[in-house]
Amino acid sequence: MTTQQEYPVLWPVPTRWADNDHYGHVNNVTYYSYFDTAVNAWLMAATGTDIRELPAIGVVAQTSCQYLGSLSFPDQLRVGLRISRLGRSSITYELAIFRVLDNANPDETLELAATGSFVHVYVDRVSRKSVEIPPVIRTAAATLVAAGE
Questions:
Q1: Distance (Å, rounded) from C-alpha 145 to C-alpha 99?
Q2: pLDDT tens figures, 91-123
Q3: pTM of the entire structure?
């Protein structure tokens, strides 16, 4: 069973009114938005850089998600982040979405709702050809590399 202790970062992401679908729960495609939001918001916070302005940008090459529980607005979430592979030009994130059960103790009362992965490949912002991960990104990413990697 995946637990929040396995992730060095738990990034807060709120659900939004528009996230719910006709069936009254967060639509499956929205989970990918939570992954994207958490990864890129964390990168900006960890690097102190607007990553959109770097000469090399991370584009999503692959994502996956395993749904384990239902979410619904107004749930508060924590997206767990860790890195399973830090390559020359790509980063593979392992992610978990946790629902906060008690807003008074948000990081202590979490229920697993989904796990997934997310691969960023770094490309030159103009040519879109593969390039090395920018040093500022690599330095931040190294702090999330899972033990044994």
A1: 24
A2: 999 999 999 998 888 777 899 999 999 999 999
A3: 0.93
